[in-house]
Write a structure and sequence with these properties.
Keywords: Hydrolase. Belongs to the carbon-nitrogen hydrolase superfamily. NIT1/NIT2 family. Helix content is about 25%, strand content about 25%. By secondary structure, the protein is of the alpha/beta class. It has a single domain, classed as 4-Layer Sandwich (Nitrilase/N-carbamoyl-D-aminoacid amidohydrolase), CATH 3.60.110.10. A hairpin with a 5-residue loop joins strand 4 and strand 5. The longest helix is centred in the C-terminal third of the chain and has 16 residues.
Length: about 280
């Protein structure tokens, strides 16, 4: 599977961000034969200051940002994943009251431009002195996995990375690639946490991990990690695009060498006690 991971620095202006995303995706060529293009969390609009009203800029899943992604997905004949802030809708698809907190949502647009999946971030970033839950709603606890080029790609967002049960839930749902768009804030040891956790999720689950992070006020270091924990491609702190080729041969080797998934004795359905 051929992957392009986009590292960018979003602003608080959705119009500016659409232009930026349009330009960076426009530089990708269909002749590259990409299967998957991943942009960071909050590519539609940066989180901004803690008192910024994210609800005012949130869009529905047929809004301008997702429409732009769909156009590029069709042009590239690839699946495109990116982070947006989603305005909640009622059962008819109409927007709910402006008082409703939006979702921090990953959208996956298929090569035909259709919306293949929407993952609403489960673990909101109420940590390191920040309260994401004051500005956004948490999604339902349910795995979201998308088929891409014969692989099963599980979606998770930023802070989800700190919860190993999240990645294991996705793997149990069939994922053999974990896709992690993020806006991983800079801070003491945060860069180290980022790479360590990405590699840990790859090693413990014997899966590929692909992570597209924002830069600027965030750590950057977008990277692809193989199922044995090797960083096979990475970026620094500047905007750019990272390419990676994910092979099932490497996945098979990792699971033959380290059959930890097959050997585990504790699962989500375990009840304890002696076997019958």
């Amino acid at each position: 599977m051929q992957v392009a991971l986009v590292q960018l620095s979003a602003t608080s202006d959705p119009d500016d961000n659409r232009k930026q995303v349009d330009e960076v995706l426009g530089r990708l060529d269909g002749s590259d034969r990409l299967d998957l293009v991943v942009l960071p969390e909050a590519s539609m609009r940066d989180f901004g200051d803690p008192d910024d009203d994210l609800a005012a800029d949130a869009e529905t899943l047929d809004g301008p940002f997702v429409t732009l992604l769909a156009q590029h997905a069709q042009r590239l004949d690839a699946t495109v994943v990116a982070g947006t802030f989603e305005r909640p809708t009622d059962g008819t698809g109409a927007a709910e009251s402006d008082r409703s907190l939006p979702y921090n949502t990953l959208v996956a647009l298929g090569p035909d431009g259709s919306l293949r999946a929407a993952y609403r971030k489960i673990h909101l970033y109420d940590s390191f002195g920040y309260l994401e839950s004051e500005r956004l709603s948490a999604g339902a606890v349910s795995p979201v996995v998308v088929d891409v080029a014969g692989r099963r790609v599980g979606l998770m967002t930023c802070y989800d990375l700190r919860f190993p049960e999240m990645s294991r839930m996705l793997v149990d749902a069939g994922a053999d690639v974990l896709c992690v768009p993020a806006a991983w804030v800079r801070g003491p040891l945060k860069e180290d946490h980022w790479e360590t956790l990405l590699r840990a999720r790859a090693i413990e689950n014997t899966v590929d991990v692909i992570a597209a992070d924002q830069c600027g006020r965030y750590v950057g270091r977008t990277m692809a990690v193989d199922p044995l924990g090797v960083v096979v491609a990475s970026a620094g702190e500047a905007p750019g695009v990272v390419r990676a080729s994910l092979t099932t041969d490497r996945l098979t080797l990792a699971r033959r060498t380290n059959p930890s998934l097959a050997n585990r004795r504790i699962t989500s359905g375990s009840t304890g006690g002696a076997p019958a």
